[in-house]
């Protein structure tokens, strides 16, 4: 999970005369009277909403950072469930947070594995099957949920992390073991620690397939890190222009892993931060004084790469 600025809502959700506003009014009326069937929400599915979420999150799941671009459908996930809420004791409260059904800050793109309750079973002796997925879960502190009427969310302490509302990257650490990368709460305390733990559990952020997928990226990151370290050694021995160019290119390729559009960028940022100081310390004496971050300085020296030509 990385921090994303959600920005302004698409017009289709905020236009006072638009379909979303009309639907919100109708839903309030529906749930104010006596009702037996759930309201049917549709406005949040508008193409503009989907497009903005894809753009913002670069076709990655807001929770696990897997790509849903080519092979899976994207779920427009309601952070606070709109129709019903499943409680800690497996009870169901209806309706859900219906007044947030087309609220921009409540909408996130999710892969089916984070959003739906599913069993994950790799059929490996040492890997236990795991049932996870958010579905209608929305844990709050002490299961202390106000009756679900508009604005009730202001009186509860949520236990799930929101990628646009929490400083999520500071709350996790990653551990590599047996070809898998698991995530754990960082040394944070209090409500943030609780949120990190609950988010891992509810969303299945350590489901076995996801750990393997993370490991694939970690191996590539690590190989690039080794290339950068070799280039740094060459530059340390001989500060020629060509060695500096090589180092700049290697570091540039390394920091690409940290970009928000990259798979599992939170893991790569965590791994990079562990070695950043070491690289800075080695670089600093070799560069002009007052260069600020040596890495940024060197990466800024990298020649512009040629565009990749047509294939074949
Ligand atoms: Zn996901």
The number of helical runs is 9
Mean pLDDT across the residues is 91
- General form: elongated
Report the bound ligands by name, code or SMILES. Answer: zinc ion
Domains counted in the coordinates: how many?
A: 2
Q: What percentage of amino acids are in beta strands? A: 5-15%
Major sheet: order of its strands? 1-4
Based on secondary structure, the structural category is alpha+beta
Q: Please bin the fraction of helical residues.
A: 25-40%
Task: Note poorly predicted spans.
Answer: none
Taking the alpha carbons of the first and last residues, their distance comes to 37 Å
Q: If you compute it from the alpha carbons, what radius of gyration comes out, rounded to the nearest whole angstrom?
A: 23 Å
Short recap of the structure:
This protein folds into two domains: about 10-205, no CATH class; about 215-300.
General description of the model:
The longest helix has 30 residues, at 208-237. The chain is an alpha+beta fold and 312 residues long. It folds into two domains: 11-206, no CATH class; 214-300. The two termini are 37 Å apart. Helix content is 38%, strand content 10%. The mean pLDDT is 91. Strand 7 and strand 8 (180-185) form a beta hairpin. Strands 1-4 form a two-stranded antiparallel ribbon. The protein has nine helices and eight strands. The protein binds zinc ion (ZN).
Top keywords for this entry?
312 residues; alpha+beta; two-stranded antiparallel ribbon; 38% helix; binds zinc ion
